[in-house]
User: What shape does this take?
Amino acid sequence: MKPIGIDLPLRRGNQGFFQQTFTTENAIKSNLKNLLLTNFGERPLNPTFGNNLRRFVFEQDTDITKLKIEETIRDVVSENFSSLRIERFDFEDITYDNRITVSISFSIQNIPDVLDRVSLEINLGN
Assistant: This one.
């Protein structure tokens, strides 16, 4: 099977320097993680790639902040992944550590019956 992309998190692979993805579903999931974990201006020669989730680092843990996070993610996904449809957001508050875990359930337009999930952690400044 021919590799499609590089899997995240980066780690040593068996067939090449980095672990690779071999299915469209895994490649899209890895690319989505990459997009969500990259801030604007971080990628050389592509300053508009990524998002601005780090602006929430010093926000209070409120429902309004969660709505803003959701809106930011929806906007950046619709701009970069026309084949992805976000189905649901789940927020898990870790109040003792000032963090929110965001789980995003999504489907892929041309691949029916595939519902996958990506999770990321955002540190807040309560």
